[in-house]
Amino acid sequence: MKQILLIITGSIAAYKSLELIRFLRKENVRVRVILTPGGAEFITPLSCATLTEEPVYSDLFSLTEETEMGHIRLAREADLVVVAPATADIIAKVAEGRADDLASTTLLTTTRPIVIAPAMNVEMWNNQATQSNVKLLKQRGVEFIGPEEGELACGEWGRGKVTEPSAISAFIIDKLFGDRPLKGFKALVTAGPTQELIDPVRFISNPSSGKQGYAIAEALLQKGAEVTLISGPTNETPPEGAHLNLVQTAEEMWKATESVLPVDLAICTAAVSDYRPDHPSSQKIKKKNEASSLTMIPTVDILASLSNHKKRPRLLIGFAAETENIVENAKTKLIKCDWVIANDVSKGIFRSNENEVYLITPKANEHWPRMTKKEVAIKLVEHIIKELK
Prior knowledge:
The protein is an alpha/beta fold. Helix content is about 35%, strand content about 25%.
């Protein structure tokens, strides 16, 4: 997950930083906040902590934070450092290389890109000292967004108004993720195993961990897609920003899947049980010293159901877990979907953080040698972007 460090300084525009946090969290960005004493005159640490779900930092000499050199840790763990709103004072401190509080010390320590969104009175912005500081910082590679021209809090009109949070957020997202080609696309991902009950304490399932599906959901989110993740029972942490729907059985997974339609894209990574007991017992079946049998019936074929649905996704991708004749067996699934991702689960793929797959389409087969499941997800999403665009 991408992470920014947001420094909020003592401007009346500080209240807009709360909205900026909300925008960034919706885009699956982790936000940590340094709130200066001046900033705390306008908004509270509790407001920032509630929206970020993270501790708020303010004291350079905090015993609990600085025993771990907190200002260095904050500076290095972020992908981007953003000062919004930025007063003339913090701009001057950064230009001069001063380090007399947590905010300025962190800005002097960081090697990450810095973005500054100024907010101040028009005369302060136009002052030669401020303009000289801004020019110097730009020469050093610091990026500025705004300020805008408009009515200021003091009642005057001119340049000095902080850029709106939505625009700052869009600027930050572009810096963090680059182009977001799947913005506006809806994606559905199924992941994990299903469990088909025999009785209240026993079920039929498989060793699927859900790791690959969760990684694909995260990769799609990072490219701007709106993602619904329908998951069987796993121990995986879902990516922030995904619409999560937890299910247990194949029937529940199909109903959840159908309820999401229409979507532009569906990727069915879930290891869905092919059969279920015909009549699960409502009570625990007692052990007997004799042979026992179960009558099994087929479960719903989710991939085929999606393929034949009147709201069929534009691009439908299925996964094939095979143990022999990988490509040949997987090709048979092309009658139900557009692409098939095939892997050999006899090689210890289940529950592993790595995968080795074949991308099979009507036109070609690609072999992707063993790599992490996150790398598989990123590579697959790159192919998806080319197809949908």
